[in-house]
Structure formats: C-alpha cells, structure tokens
Amino acid sequence: MKTEKDRQLARMRELTDILNEAARAYYSTDKEIMSNYEYDALYDELASLEKKTGIVNADSPTVRVGYEVLSELPKERHEQPMLSLDKTKEVAALEAFAGNHKALLSWKMDGLTIVLTYENGTLKKAVTRGNGEVGEVITNNAKTFKNLPLVIPYKGTLIIRGEAVISYADFEKINEGITDADEKYKNPRNLCSGSVRQLNNEITAKRNVNFFAFSLVSAPDVDFKNSREEQLKWLMSQGFRTVEYTVVTAQNMEEAVKDFAQRIESYDFPSDGLVLLYDDIEYGRSLGRTAKFPKDSIAFKWADEVADTTLLEIEWSPSRTGLINPVAIFSPVELEGTTVSRASVHNLSIMESLELGIGDTISVYKANMIIPQIADNKTRSGRLDVPKVCPACGEPTVVRNDNGTKTLFCDNAQCMAKHIKSLSHFVSRDAMNIDGLSENTLEKFVAHGFIKEYADIYKLNRYENEIVGLEGFGKKSYDNLISAADKARTVNLPQLIYSLGIPNVGLTNAKMICKAYDYSLDSLRRTDVSGLSDIEGIGDVIAGSFVKFFEDERNNKILDDLLSEINIVNEISENENILEGKVFVITGAVEHFANRNELKDKIESYGGKVTGSVTGNTSYLINNDVNSTSSKNKTAQKLGVPIISEEEFLKMLP
User: Fold this and answer.
1) What CATH number belongs to 491-568?
2) Where do the structural domains in the chain lie, given as residue ranges?
3) Are 326 and 319 a contacting pair, CB within 8 Å?
4) Could you read off the pLDDT of 3-32 as tens digits, one per residue?
5) What's the predicted TM-score (pTM) here?
6) Quick check: do 416-488 and 491-568 share a fold?
7) 124 is catalytic
8) Is residue 274 within a helix (H) or strand (E), and if so which, with residue range?
C-alpha cells in the first residue's frame, strides 16, 4: 500500500524527468515542448514537494551541481573495513544459511561500491570501496549521480553503502557513439568504474550513473526495530533507491531464487548474482566475521553452465585501429540453449595466463549467461605462437604493454584489414546502406583492384564483365549491386559523417554535430575542438577525433572524391519525426529486429526517444510478452503506461 510519502517521491521523480526533458529540448534542440508558464508551474510544484519531503535529488532542476576538474582523486581510509562476501552457487546452501531465520534476498549489483556520508541532511562525502581498507574520494562525482538525493530530511550523521551502476540501455547508447569495436566498453561495470572515478565530474554527469543503497552502516538515533528491512524502508523514505529485495525463509528460498533468475534477462541493471542477509540485525552482528567475510550475509552466484571442448585454432582478427584480437575457435558446444564455437580471448596477457595450445581441452561458459568465455585450460600445453606478421598485410606486428596488459598491433597504415573494415563500415545499414557488399565481397573487389577508396563503389559499372564473371556473382547480382549503389548516391549529412568512420563518432553524435552546424559540411570541415565541445553530449575526446580527422589531407582528398559521386540532402520528410515527443522503453526479446539496439535505432529514426526505465513520462513500453510479470511491466501497469508488442509498434509507422 503506497503511503502519501511514496506518492510524493514518485511525483518528484516524474516532475524531474519532465522538467529536465523540457530543458534539454529547449537548450539543445531549440524546441519548446511546453510553455514557460507550464514549466514554471511544474518547477514550483517540484520545489514545494522538495520542501515538504526534505529531499532534493542530484538531477533536480532546482539544483545545479558545479563541475570540477581534479589532478588526482584523494585517498581516504574507511572507518570500518569493507569485506567481501562468501559465495555459493547452490540454493541448498542458501536454505541452510537461512535456517529458521527471516532473511532478505536481493540483487547483487555489478557496479562500483560506494560509501556515502550525510551530515545535517546534506551529502558530505562519497568514497569508493577501493581495496576495502582505503578508497578514493569521489564526492563531487557522486553529486552528479542520476538518482542520488543531495539533501535528505534526516539531520543526523548517516553512513550508507550502495552500488553505483550504469543501466544496459545507457551502456548500449554510450557504446553506440564509439564506432571502433576495439574501443567500445566491454561491459557496464567497466564503464561505471571509469565514469565514477573521473577527474572531471562533468564526464560522470553525462554517463547517467545510478546509485542503489544496500546497507545502512550508521544512523545512531533512529530505531529500526532490529530489522534490516526496516532500515531499507527508512532509506526509501529518505529518497534513496534501494536494491530490490524479497523477504525469504528456507521454505520459499528456491521459489524466490527462480523468480530472480527468470527476471534477470529483462532487468536493465547489471547483476552478477544475489545477496542473502539476515533481517535480525543483532543476530547477524553476534555471528562476527572471518578474516575475509562477514557472517551475517552470503552471495549467491548464478551457476554457470560449463562445457569442455577442444581448442581448434586461434583466429587473429585485425581491426580498423590496428589492434589484432585473438579469438578462440573450438569444437561446437551447447551453452544456455545456444550453440557456441568461438570466444574472444581479449589480449595476449589472458592468452598467456591460460597457456593455450592447439588441441588443448578447454572449459567454456557464458559470462552472466550471455558472453562466451574460456573458464580454464585443463591441459595447458602452451604451444601457441604469437604472429610475427599481420595476417592481413604481412607487415611486422608490434606487442604493446599498456599498464601491464599486452596487446598485438599492426602499425601498417596501408593494412588491407583496416581498409576492408573501413569499407564495410561505410556501406553498413546506418551509414551509406549499400546492400550486397559483404566483407567477403569487398575483399574480392579490393583484391581485383575494383575498389581503392569510397568513391570507387559508385564506379563499379566500369568492371561489369569482370564482376559478372566472378565466382558467386552473375548478371542479377551485379544489377542489384549497381542499383543499391545508385540508390545510396542520395544521403543526408549525418549518415555521410558517420560513414567516414571517424573514431568515437557514432550516428547519434553525428546527428547532434550536424544539427549544431546547420548541416553545413564546409563548417564541419573547418570547426575546432572548442566549438564542438560546446555541443551538449560532445566531449573533448569526440571533438578531438573529429577535428583530427579533417586535418588529414588524405581524408579530405577521399571525401572530395566521394562528393563528386553523391548528393547530400537534408530535407526532413513528413514522416521523419512521426514519433517526436514519444518516449519508449524496450524490454524482453525482439522478433522483427536483430536486437533491441536495432529497434531503438528505428524509433530514433522517426524522432522518438528510448530510455531505460519506465516512468510517468514514458509513452509506451514495448514487450512482446504483454502479460509478463517483469518489473517493467508492473511499473507500466501502475503508471498507466500502454504495453505494446512489436507488431503494434510497427503499425504506428508509415
């Protein structure tokens, strides 16, 4: 049953989202989605609720956190050591741990643990876990966390622990803006760790970091009735978002674990397991601790399905940046319902630590039930040579050692693999969208001299007889290819900019940059880092990559040749913004698209917006299982947000 305080907090969250969206539209896109009168009325309502509740969130438009750049993060020793948790993969062990006691079972969030201190109702200090004894002070960064209250009603000294995390939706969006596969973040945890520990908290603010409180360390004068659950409920009343939990005993443990396991695929925040904690505070404290673990709680790790197989080869895969990735190819095995036969080894350091050799018996699994990984090498022959030359161009390779991690590179600027990857990116769907030019076909065309640079793709009719005569090709394939290339002669500027493969510049960033420069290619080619950095969402890294690209004479020559073959148009079709003002959330498996990212791209291409969480500002939740009991469906039902399938969404489009 929702209390008045719960309703007030929910309304504050809704008002914050609405006002921030209105501000973004006004200042970033010169569009007004509400009048000044409406904005002021909602702003006053939010300010009034903040005064009533005594809670002010970090992203509230009533406060503005100042940005600060530090030379290094200061260190600080924790008052109490932060211990790790003992672990199990057996439900029976959780049942035995709980015994006859009431306990709380919650998500084990996979981010960065933070300790927060509030004094006199204001956030005073934020420190990372560090090594458990000493952490880094990140107070100004924490003030930019998306959902963290800066001011709370409680005026005593409060110390809490929680997890800073970045949602999968935001993780995918940030990675979308990084065109090079090698520079993309590997997982949300790595992205979050780097975001929280930035020396410039303006960068942290752009990463949409969320905070989930999971433990109350100290609030001396508050009576929690000797209950951890009461502590979490109290923290919620203070404006904190806490980890989602279920009250359990040994009797309902298996059912509760199954419920979490069913929901993990649609849960938008990274979790690597569960945590079981005694509700009885004094009982838990009486158990003490070991040298490594507290005895009042235990972690449950998802039992990975592991299979043994034989390593057949290591495929060395060059990229556009020159990084050569080792990829393990092994005899196919079934894992988590799918057949897998390859897994990235990531770098030379990992390869050496596994002592890999062809013919070795390796154990493979899917990390967090998703990404194939090598768990162990049972035979460890170590019979594996690192290529002395690039497998694509034959030029010498270079082993680099960055902060203790060894990687293999090809420094040849004319490397064929780099060239093929660049062309493949150029013709991809979100770029020039030229069908019929797979990497294999591009490789053949480059090898035969048909294509040397982008403009040559539009001159393939010079080689009609040769192409028709190639194995796997014929007159129909040739005609289709020429038709696709001709169709792609007309392109809008953001697509063109994205197709050039400028490091760190994704399609979304390209759209923002082009809009800021009134779709003038000449202006874009002459811009500087300062001008680009003034665009909201474009930082120094993206700006630097953009400017550096157009400072290269060779890049400009390639672009000039291309411009002689294509036409740039920037007219907005009547249907282009048909979803403008609509906010979508996507959850569950998709059927009509390759993945959720592709569905997200479709929504944004029609002017809509995709977010990771269902709020009062959400227009539609897309879930093919409209009757699902997932947390997103439940939230949508509570807020009256329509839940639609992909089929229903597609009917909205022209």
Assistant:
1) 1.10.150.20
2) 4-53, 75-300, 307-410, 416-488, 491-568, 583-650
3) no
4) 888 888 888 888 888 888 777 654 444 345
5) 0.51
6) yes
7) no
8) strand 271-278
